[in-house]
Amino acid sequence: MTPAMTKPDVRFQEVLDRLSSMSVENYYNPYRMFEWPDELPGDMWWMSPTLTTTYGTDIAEELTQEQLRVLSRYESINFYSLNVHGIRELLIEVTKRIHTAEFAVPSRFFHHFIGEENEHMWFFAEFCLRYGAKIYKQPRGGAETILPPNAESLLVFARILIFEELVDHFNSQMALDKDLHDTIRQINRIHHQDESRHIAFGRELVRTLFEDFRSQATGEELAQVGDYLKRYMSFSFESLFNPQAYRDAGVGKPLEVRRRLLEGPRRPEFEQRVFRKTLSFLAKNGILGDKDHVSPHRRRPRPALSRSGSART
Ligand SMILES: [Fe+2]
Ligand SMILES: [Fe+2]
Known about the structure:
The chain is mainly alpha-helical. 63% of the residues lie in helices and 0% in strands.
């Protein structure tokens, strides 16, 4: 049982009340909200170039501008597909907890959260199916990891926060990119607006859950949590590099392209930038020892984790 989740905590309750009111005030009908043209122009960028996985790399120099634009289309379908899968998994976890005694305090906000995420999952899936004719498969991860037994909810909500912050790095930039089609900018803008509430909530919740966990944890258990979250960040980041998207864009040797990009010199800087705010939050609250994210290829290779954190082979 998590004391701060069951006892009324003034600060946490105020945040929840404010965010719940904002959800009510900003409520919109997603099924009427968007313009869905029959098709989007094939000669435009579908993602901001700096957010694509090949930007500033040798691979980009080997491709023509037209190939890079085509690739941005498939990378955008991959990005929205990752959203669909990530949302489905976070909905399962939040729904499991919504009316438990442990999460009585945030229960009301969970209703807004679940409703909004269902709508996000719908418009991301709609985009993929309309303009890519498919949703890419969920990326597969690696093996079991040792975790403290009482850290489950902390890790669930930390994973949700990491996922939402990663997505928001892309949404906030694409919402403002005038070179993108209006429909793409609109989807990214609307999602960014909703996610600002979810991220504000997630930070409060993770901070509170971590304080409770830390009060009873050993040094080794704290290190296990930090290590797990860093590996989860790497796994999430690497899921942006989908060989099937390279293949669909007509890029030769897609697995080799992926490997070269993940081992290349741009990766650490790109990854650090994507997680800049997340790392700073985790380090400031003592959840990670530092805010430098060391890419796994610089360390001994370790198995990746699935988004749900479950064992996958
Ligand atoms: Fe969302
Ligand atoms: Fe969200």
